[in-house]
Write a structure and sequence with these properties.
Region (Disordered): 152-175
Radius of gyration: 15 Å
Shape: globular
Domain 2Fe-2S ferredoxin-type: 1-77
Distance between the termini: 43 Å
Largest sheet: 5 strands, mixed
Strand content: 5-15%
Protein name: (2Fe-2S)-binding protein
Order of helices and strands: EEHEEEHHHHH
Strand order of the largest sheet: 2-1-5-3-4
Structural class: alpha+beta
Helix content: 25-40%
Pfam families: Fer2, Fer2_2
Keywords: 2Fe-2S, Iron, Iron-sulfur, Metal-binding, Oxidoreductase
Number of strands: 5
Amino acid sequence: MRITVTVNGEQCTRDVEPRLLLVHFLRDELGLTGTHWGCDTSNCGVCAVWLDGTPVKSCTVLAVMADGHEVRTVEGLAHGAELDPVQQGFIACHGLQCGFCTPGMMMTARWLLDHDADPSEEDIREAISGQMCRCTGYENIVRSIRWAAEHGGGAQTSDAAADTEPAPGREEVRA
């Protein structure tokens, strides 16, 4: 099947097998290896990307389902040579650890901060609860996200924030 997907602002057209997962499309077809591939069952969350502004686990989305849609990956966080505050926070607070979960964590953190410029520790932990980090007790990751919030990482820094709505059910979690 021929699909056209806008990835990090760039339109990409490719012929793909109907069964190709979005994670493999991004990594193998487009060379965007920042999106990691972990479990293929949506348990680990390392493959989180945005599909039309909403975080999804790309191991459970077929590439053909992204046809005509926008995808944002961790490579799309930086603004030119300037790192996003979320990326800066992960560096400043040692949230990187081994780095395997980092892209998914960063994408989730960016989404959270786009919707809540000053989340509590509880809000942060809830937001990242769909992702596994095997290196830490999440302390440095939570600190990294708080650092980003405290250093201009709120919604005003993200182009995508204005056009996205919270995922279904998120309002109840935040209330």
